[in-house]
Automatic annotation (TrEMBL):
E.C. designation(s): 6.1.1.9
Keywords: Aminoacyl-tRNA synthetase, ATP-binding, Coiled coil, Cytoplasm, Ligase, Nucleotide-binding, Protein biosynthesis
SUPFAM superfamilies: Anticodon-binding domain of a subclass of class I aminoacyl-tRNA synthetases, Nucleotidylyl transferase, tRNA-binding arm, ValRS/IleRS/LeuRS editing domain
Protein location: Cytoplasm
Residue positions of motif 'HIGH' region: 47-57
Record's signal peptide: none
Free-text function comment from the UniProt entry: Catalyzes the attachment of valine to tRNA(Val). As ValRS can inadvertently accommodate and process structurally similar amino acids such as threonine, to avoid such errors, it has a 'posttransfer' editing activity that hydrolyzes mischarged Thr-tRNA(Val) in a tRNA-dependent manner.
Record remark: domains: ValRS has two distinct active sites: one for aminoacylation and one for editing. The misactivated threonine is translocated from the active site to the editing site. The C-terminal coiled-coil domain is crucial for aminoacylation activity.
Name of protein: Valine--tRNA ligase
Catalytic activity annotation: tRNA(Val) + L-valine + ATP = L-valyl-tRNA(Val) + AMP + diphosphate
Organism from which the protein derives: candidate division WOR-3 bacterium
């Protein structure tokens, strides 16, 4: 019999994980090939090269790896495509932050040198990200590693742009865009977040043309933009201004005549009902300006400073210009009043600089026609969201989608594939760089300076990574992918865009399932943030507790809810579970070493053997169901419950005597259940399961095994019989605990013969050894009724009594209970009075009231239990 010498007393993941991952790499278990098997494909949500992975990445990639490993064990040809994203704005911000420390900007370096820095940054952080994914245990196909700016992806990006352009879906126009003065680029609505700002609402008088005219008072939150006003607008249904529409007023400070117009976009309940119209600096005003053919005057530039069109305010920052404008309005008696006003301030999601709405010439993608098929496939359940509520979120956005601003005024990214002829003005959009103008043959061609929004290349990720637009073997075999696992923040930024891009460019859905996982919050409930020092580093947790511990804990917590709170101590759950598995393996190693097939298992099984097999079969069915439904938390919880309690607490305890006797049926049962359990545990805890598999020499690798099927077993009542046995032992333990009986004292168990089924009486008698060892019972006898001074325990199947007179000091115990009952009644009276108090009910927070209700419930239950136990002693 093999010894357990190879097993340390405590599982040390540092001794295991790097070695095991190197073994997987050496044997290329990660690698997929074109085969006759069914395929299963996931394209990893590519981490940004802006830094190391955070805890959200750890959750996201753990869930993907669970599905990848399960499908591999099920015999699928499994491909998990790894890669990273160039993250244009994010990378710009990181590198420019470093440059600022040297007192430089990217413009000091120039485009070429700045891009060289970006590529150097990419090499550094991509290497770090890959090492972190490996440390987490991700079974990615590293031979197919992609980067959104590599040659393969770049070819796909250019093809997509040209195809959209040729089909009339990409156009260039002046529109109001979100401009970030700090990042110095246009950004989409999805890259903007909103903050509540306590500000002012200013009421400004716009005088009439003549001294006899009353003029109009407008209300505004941005007085500095009035320098670019070209009209005052009112709602056509607002009777207050019926006679003024068509008249003109004087624009204060600028002394320019502007018309009063009527437009339904004006909210007549805002301010005075009359609003200033600045078409070049507000999206609503832009629409009004187009409808009424108003001039567009740009008075704030890309640095958020006043342009020369702002007259004497030119060169001032927007903040200083506001102060000067308000001061001058006061001096001229045109600032009628000011009042406090809260408004949603739009800021850049990256740097939190206030967004400046600017009229700008940009490239756009028409979305209406692209959105409809993407809406249809979700409504028809061809693409399904889990949890389902996220499908509605997707549809709400897609049904109200606006054209996508594609261009960014940055350097790191995909250059827009457009060239302008400096001779004739021709615009060339081509799949390869043109050498001359197709119209006039001039060689004086100027490339567009802008790059594409990062999300344009990300939208192509599921198919660009497989070689599209070429019909590669990989693309033909592995596409479409099967599932996307991602977080709720990028449903619009990424998920929706992948769906419409794939439908338009490949005529296929990119995946049939989208699983949206929870957002991981800090212990305080705040979003994790490295810059604020809030959160935990997954790499540190892996070093301290091991990858399996982190993976299991995150999976256990992933209930599909909106969010969950996470902090370091929670990983102790996973670490303790790993140690439990390891210790059980140490116990079993001498008996199961090198055991392979288990033929003839049906013969000689005890009811307890049948029970553990039935329990495993139930676990297997539950696990299959949970993973099919992407119920990751229940998957982890069921694995934990079975192994810790059903297998270790009960079956191993029942099996100890038979193990010592080397009972072959027991060994076969243990071998089959333990090996199959390791297989279904493997997806979430791959390192420890592989290590145990190899130590036991069950085979070369657990990854070469097959996902288990139910263990065949004839139908019987073993499960019900054993559950009654467990109930009986737990009942004895409960009474021991409640009556504070010395653990060393053995008890007499009296079974009520008339209230207990005959087959159970026989089964209990046959298993008196287990009852004795696990319940501390010295003998089992049959009685017709409960004797005095005995505790009682009953279920629908049986009833038993434990005589207490000889094992405890009855009078002393009665006094203790009576005293505790009095204290409980007193405390319950206080709680009831508090809950009945009207002042408490009206003013206490809901969580405080709920806490008191739960406390009352718990104390009431304890009181009832004590009163019942006291009655036993009468």
């Amino acid at each position: 019999m093999a010894e357990s010498a190879g097993f340390n007393k405590v599982y040390n993941p540092k001794d295991v994980e790097k070695r095991i991952y190197a073994f997987w790499e050496e044997n290329r278990y990660y690698h997929a090939v074109i085969s006759r098997k069914k395929k299963f494909t996931i394209a990893i949500p590519p981490p940004n090269i802006t830094g190391s992975l955070h805890i959200g990445h750890a959750l996201n990639n753990t869930l993907q790896d669970i599905l990848i490993r399960k499908k591999k064990l099920e015999g699928f040809e499994v491909l998990w495509i790894p890669g990273t994203d160039h993250a244009s704005i994010g990378t710009h911000n990181q590198i420019e932050k470093e440059l600022r420390k040297e007192g430089k900007t990217r413009f000091d370096l120039g485009r070429e040198k700045f891009l060289a820095l970006c590529w150097k940054w990419k090499e550094q952080y991509e290497k770090k990200i890959i090492s972190q994914l490996k440390a987490l245990g991700c079974l990615c196909d590293w031979e197919r590693l992609r980067f959104t700016l590599d040659e393969v992806c770049s070819k796909a990006v250019r093809e997509a742009f040209v195809r959209y352009y040729e089909d009339g879906l990409i156009y260039r126009d002046y529109r109001i865009i979100n401009w970030c003065p700090r990042c110095h680029t246009a950004i989409s609505d999805l890259e903007v977040k909103t903050k509540e700002l306590k500000s002012q609402l200013w009421y400004i008088k716009y005088p009439g043309l003549h001294s006899s005219d009353k003029g109009v008072v407008v209300a505004t939150t941005r007085p500095e933009t009035m320098l670019g006003d070209t009209a005052v607008a009112v709602n056509p249904d607002d009777f207050r201004y019926k006679g003024l529409v068509g008249e003109k007023v004087i624009l204060p400070l600028m002394k320019r005549e502007i018309p009063i117009i009527a437009d339904s976009l004006v909210d007549k309940d805002f301010g005075t009902g009359a609003v200033k119209v600045t078409p070049a600096h507000d999206p609503v005003d832009f629409e009004i300006g187009k409808r009424h053919n108003l001039p567009f005057i740009k008075v704030i530039d890309e640095d958020a400073k006043i342009t020369k069109e702002g007259g004497r305010y030119a060169g001032l920052s927007r903040e200083l210009a506001r102060e000067e404008v308000l001061k001058d309005l006061r001096n001229e008696g045109l600032l009628i009043k000011e009042e406090e006003y809260s408004l949603p301030l739009k800021v850049c999601a990256r740097c939190e600089t206030a967004i400046e709405p600017l009229l700008s010439l940009q490239w756009f993608l028409r979305m209406k026609g692209l959105a409809q098929p993407a809406i249809k496939v979700v409504k028809e359940k061809k693409v399904r969201f889990f949890p389902e509520r996220w499908g509605k979120v997707y549809l709400d956005w897609m049904e109200n989608i606006k054209d996508w601003c594609l261009s960014r005024q940055l350097w790191w990214g995909h250059r827009i594939p457009v060239f302008y002829c400096e001779e004739c003005g021709e615009i060339l959009v081509t799949r390869t760089d043109p050498k001359e103008c197709s119209r006039c043959q001039s060689k004086r061609l100027k490339p567009d300076e802008d790059i594409l929004d990062t999300w344009f290349s990300s939208a192509l990720w599921p198919f660009s990574t497989l070689g599209w637009p070429e019909k590669t073997e990989d693309f033909l075999f592995f596409y479409p992918t099967d599932i996307l696992i991602t977080d709720p923040d990028i449903i619009f930024l990424w998920v929706a865009r992948m769906v419409f891009s794939s439908l338009y460019l490949t005529k296929e859905i990119p995946f049939h399932t989208v699983y949206i996982h929870s957002t991981v919050l800090a212990q305080s409930g705040e979003r994790m943030s490295r810059s604020k020092g809030i959160g935990v580093d997954p790499q540190i947790l892996i070093e301290r507790y091991g990858s399996d511990a982190l993976r299991f804990t995150l999976t256990y917590l992933e209930t599909g809810s909106q969010s969950f709170r996470f902090w370091e101590e929670r990983v102790i759950l996973g670490r303790n579970f790993a140690n439990k598995i390891w210790n059980a393996a140490r116990l079993l190693y001498p008996y199961l070493f090198q055991r392979r097939g288990e033929e003839g298992l049906k013969e000689g099984l005890t009811p307890i053997d049948e029970w553990i097999i039935q329990e495993f079969n139930k676990l297997l069915n539950d696990v299959n169901l949970y993973l099919t439904q992407y119920n990751f938390s229940s998957y982890a919880a069921s694995l934990y419950e079975f192994f810790w309690h059903t297998f270790c607490d009960w079956y191993l305890e029942f099996a100890k005597k038979r193990l010592a006797e080397k009972d072959e049926v027991c060994l076969k049962t243990l071998s089959l259940v333990f090996k199959n359990y390791l297989k279904i545990l493997h997806p979430v805890m791959p390192f420890i399961t592989e290590e145990i598999w190899q130590k036991f020499q069950f085979g070369k690798s657990i990854l070469e095994e097959r996902w288990p099927e139910e263990i065949p077993l004839p139908f019987g009542k073993a499960r019900e019989l054993v559950y009654s046995l467990l109930d009986l032992i737990k009942g004895v333990r409960t009474i021991r605990s409640e009556m504070k009986i010395n653990p060393k004292v053995s008890l007499t168990l009296l079974l009520n013969s008339s209230l207990t089924k005959k087959e159970l009486i026989q089964f209990f008698q046959e298993n008196i050894g287990h009852i004795r060892n696990l319940g501390g019972v010295k003998e089992l006898s049959l009685v017709a009724e409960r004797p005095p001074q005995s505790s009682s325990y009953s279920t629908r199947e049986f009833e038993f009594y434990l005589p207490l007179g000889e094992v405890i000091d009855v009078e002393k115990e009665k006094k203790r209970m009576e005293k505790e009952i009095a204290l409980l009644k007193n405390e319950l009276a206080k709680i009831s009075a508090r809950l009945a108090d009207e002042n408490f009910r009206n003013k206490a927070k809901p969580e405080v009231k709920e806490k008191e209700e739960k406390r009352k419930e718990a104390l009431t239950e304890k009181l009832q239990r004590l009163e019942r136990n006291l009655s036993y002693l009468q």
